[in-house]
Amino acid sequence: MSAQMLDEHCDASLTTIYRRLEDLLEHQLLQVETAVRSDGNHYGLYEANLDHLNVTLENGDFDVELARRDDAPDRFRGIWDAMQGREK
Q1: What CATH number has the domain spanning 1-48?
Q2: pLDDT-derived band of residue 45, with 50, 70 and 90 as boundaries?
Q3: Burial level of 25, CB count in 10 A (0-12/13-18/19+)?
Q4: Backbone Cα Rg of the chain
Q5: Three-state DSSP class for 80?
Q6: Which of 16, 60, 67, 78 has a beta carbon 3.0–4.6 Å from 12's, enabling a disulfide?
Q7: DSSP letters spanning 2-71
Q8: pTM for the structure as a whole
Q9: Any idea where the domains of the chain sit in the sequence?
Q10: Which domain of life is it from (predicted)?
Q11: Which tens digits make up the pLDDT trace of 28-38?
């Protein structure tokens, strides 16, 4: 989804949307791919970088469980590290 598409669906300014997108990118909760229009201009397409997010509230305490998607190189590195006894 592009920032313009988010702007059409959210009650926020485009500046605010870009700030929030940058925050989510910084925390690796989004990934962005650059798309090119037929006129040569480019824009970002954003996609969630999560398998799941679970937030629970119990006895006044929040518990957050977050699982990010790993790309193929990350999965390979994890397997290699586990074989070498260096699990993360």
Answers
A1: 1.10.10.10
A2: very high
A3: middle
A4: 18
A5: helix
A6: 16
A7: BHHHHHHHSSS-HHHHHHHHHHHHHTTSEEEEEEE-TTS-EEEEEEE-EEEEEEEEETTEEEEEEEE---
A8: 0.64
A9: 1-48, 50-88
A10: Archaea
A11: 899 999 999 99
